[in-house]
DNA sequence: TTGCCAAATGTCATAATCTGCCATATTGTG
DNA sequence: CACAATATGGCAGATTATGACATTTGGCAA
């Protein structure tokens, strides 16, 4: 399982990093709360900074743009999932590897379902955030590519194949995310992801059979 | 084949629409040219408007944002491709339908390779435009969904399946686009697209076999 | 042609995002 | 304590984007 608050920073070295983490977390939590309450456009950076108690200039020292503050937690989750996946990589099938990875992501969503539903509603209310959310989702591709590549080292596979597979996985993840958002968390994100990934089952099967038939 | 300049506006009704089309085209062509020459950031909306000879306020009456002007031609191509595809829909296989559709898109790119290479370089030079380009590319999904759905009316298929398939096709299109950009148009976009779509071949085959085995 | 109406455009004012620069305050260290 | 490094605040400025109002231009009928 992915743990966010605990495994991130082992060496609590000094007061500086502690304050910095605290300010960053406070900024992004306040931002999401204000976005949910008053809308993304109606909330200014000055208001966020003022509510936290820092200067507007400081906000832009933590986040490169107003949009990025909304997806900051997503970056944390990605780092945590990467760490979990890098620990041990059992010699299971390609489909199982991908499925376990994406289910790990979905579990992270489910563990903070309330927050992510809030984020989803903010994104849906502001069409311009759809683009940013799409980009954020596509950052997962870089996580899946090495997983896929590791399974295809035995057969001569072009980079295009790996890219298309990773892109298809992200597409399945996005569909699952959309449906999870629309269904109002009546169902776990994990089950939605499994359902979407099942569509790609024949694809992985064909790849693996091509791999196994290689003498 | 897709024709952009000719089949768009049959009724040359009046001087108003003529001027309007002319201004719009002039704005987007000037914008792309200035972006390519001086960079996206270094080019201001005032400069674009000034070069065309209109007010900066007029620019925002044609395009909702500075980003959109870069993808305006893409919207035209999408409309043209949709029109071509809606004419006749032969009863070919799902894989062939999708392939022909995406190849049609690729042909539109190849017919204006210079322009799209320019656009690609502008996008690659400005990371923030990657997000906008990704969103623009994903608008094709709405074009592919009905094509896929039409082939799956006979079997009980969830909307998730259609969405994942369309998303996978867009992913293949994106990989092909990336590789076409990187290769410097030494190869047709159409061949890149065919290569990427071939990866999804087993997926379509599985779907179609499931359809055919239904008694 | 003349005159009216609607559409297109220009001008001005304004809010908000984002950046560069410098001064100040806080933290870590010898 | 003294000094260096880092974090923050304040401020001016450029740029994007929008609303309100006036002006011009094209379409259409008397």
Tally the beta strands of chain A. Answer: 0
Average of pLDDT of chain A: 90
Sequence of secondary-structure elements of chain A: HHHHHHHHHHH
- Helix/sheet category of chain A: mainly alpha
Query: Main β-sheet of chain A: number of strands, strand sense, barrel status?
Result: none
- Share of residues in helices of chain A: over 70%
What is the 3D shape of chain A? elongated
By DSSP (H or I, 4+ residues per run), the number of helices of chain A equals: 11
- Greatest interface: A-B, 33 and 33 residues
Q: What would you report as the Rg of chain A, rounded to the nearest angstrom?
A: 19 Å
- List the uncertain runs of chain A: 4-10
Terminal CA distance of chain A reads: 38 Å
What is the chains' assembly state?
homodimer
Strand content of chain A: under 5%
């Amino acid at each position: 399982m992915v743990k966010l608050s605990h495994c991130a920073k082992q060496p609590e070295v000094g007061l500086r990093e502690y304050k910095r983490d605290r300010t960053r977390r406070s900024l992004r939590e306040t931002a999401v709360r204000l976005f949910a309450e008053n809308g993304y456009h109606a909330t200014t950076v000055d208001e966020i900074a003022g509510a936290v108690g820092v200067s507007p200039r400081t906000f832009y020292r933590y986040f490169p743009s107003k949009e990025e503050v909304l997806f900051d937690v997503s970056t944390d989750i990605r780092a945590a999932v990467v760490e979990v996946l890098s620990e041990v990589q059992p010699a299971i099938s390609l489909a199982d590897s991908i499925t376990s990875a994406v289910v790990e992501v979905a579990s992270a969503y489910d563990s903070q379902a309330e927050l992510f539903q809030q984020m989803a509603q903010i994104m849906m209310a502001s069409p311009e955030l759809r683009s940013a959310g799409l980009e954020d989702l596509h950052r997962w591709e870089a996580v899946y590519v090495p997983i896929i590549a590791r399974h295809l080292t035995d057969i001569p596979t072009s980079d295009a194949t790996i890219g298309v597979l990773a892109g298809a996985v992200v597409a399945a993840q996005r569909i699952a995310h959309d449906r999870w958002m629309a269904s109002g968390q009546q169902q776990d994100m994990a089950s939605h992801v499994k359902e979407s990934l099942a569509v790609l089952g024949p694809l992985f099967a064909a790849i693996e059979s091509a791999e196994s038939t290689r003498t």
